Structures are given as structure tokens and as C-alpha cells.
Amino acid sequence: MNEEVRDPRQASRGGMITLFTMLGLFLLGSVAFQRVLSQPELAGHGAEGLTFFGDRLASEPLATLPLIALMFSAVASLQSGVIPTVRGMFAMSRDRTLGPVWGRISPKYKTPAAGTLLLGACAAAMAFLAMVIPTLSDMILAAVNAIGVVVALAYALTALAAAVRFRGLLREDPWQGVRAVILPTLSAAVLLGLGGYLCHSYYVSTDHFEADPDNGWFMLLCPGLMIGTGILAAAWAKWVRKSPYFRTGHGTDADELFASEASEASETATV
Length: 271
Fold this sequence. Notes:
Blueprint: H1 8-36, H2 39-44, H3 49-57, H4 65-94, H5 113-132, H6 134-145, H7 147-165, H8 169-172, H9 174-204, H10 216-239, H11 245-248, H12 254-270
């Protein structure tokens, strides 16, 4: 919502409407499932829960409607996962914190087409390998189950970055300072506390390591690997790729990037 509108007031209003709409849908779904299915039925029909839920509500063809909704949900989830990720990678490529392939723009559609295709190919390869390698499948399942640790850390760091960026408002405008500095800092503290508690619960849940999505140490390994690879990528960008982002803290202007690409293309054509 924030990226698709020009007026910041519309962005904030649209974001809040979206937030409460999703909250209402989640609550509706949660209450509906628990009203129709018992706890043993919910536990015993994990992956097939939606199909079982539809059969309990109505006979065919109406019982198929939840599956149709699931297919639309899968398409929407694909779009909401791929498009923002590729956009973020495009911005990081623009600032030279990622490689140039993520910043290549389709001359026809003016979108980061190369990054989209590359990300889709990586996802397809992971899905295929997960079907033939049980350990990889367990790793992906554990990563999904433990993603809360990474999400908590990412949003906490975002909140702290916002607090540092706008810390001057505490002197200039105390009310804005509360909104832009104090509240994000408190939010970051809560998220770090929740993430830390989740890590602690994983650590004390077992006394041995096992490649199983129910093993707490294995659950800790997955977010640890994700965070570790991010740190390695940042180190590579800072000391090998020499990204100016780490010196200035500012991103590269998009027009400057396009001008640079046009210049490189012209030089290549001349050669």
C-alpha cells in the first residue's frame, strides 16, 4: 500500500484499513475452524484441514469453494512474496550491496525482470530438491516454523533504524519524537524480547541435535543460517564490492543508475 500511492496520508490510511481487514479475516477463519472442527480433528487433518472443513460445511460442489479460495490465495501469496522481494533486491543492487543481475531492467516493461526470473528459478529448484531430499524438506519446514525469529529481528532493527534516523525530533518536536523515536524503540525492545524468548524455548526444549523440524536446536539452526548468510552478504558488499552505501548511508539515485547502465551499454556497443 505504501509503495502504490503518492499521498502519504492515503498510504497510512490504506495500510490501517488493510491491517484491520486482515485481522478480521484471520479471526473469522480461526473462529470458524474451531466452531466446526474439534481439536483432535484440527490436529489430525493438518495439510488437508481446508478440504475437511469444506466437507463438513456443505456437500459438493460447494465443498470445493475452499479449495478454489486456496488457489487464489496461493497466487496472491506468490505475488506478495516475489514482487516485494525482487523490488528490495533491485534497490540493493542499485546501491551495490547485491550483484548487478538484480538491477537489470526489462527494456519493454521497465521492471526487474532478470531478478524476478532468477528468484523464481531458485524457488522452483528448492521446491524440486525438497521433494527428493527429505533432509532439505525438513530444513525448509523448520525454517518456516522458526521464521518468527528472523521476522522479529528484522522489524526490531527497522524500528531501531527509524529511531536513530529521527532522534533529532526529540528536541525539535517532542510529540513527533514520541511517535518516531520512543514508540519504535519500545516496539523494538518488545520484538527482541519475544525473539529471545522464542530462541530460549527452542534451546531448552531438547538436549541433543537432530535434523527434524520438531527438534529445538534444529529450529535454532535455520534462522541462524539465514542471519549468518545475510551478514556474509553485507560483509562482501562492504569490503569486496566497496558499496558506498556503508560509507554514506544513502542509496544511489535511480536516474544515476540508469545513466550508468546506458553508458556501459554504449561503451559495449562501441567496442
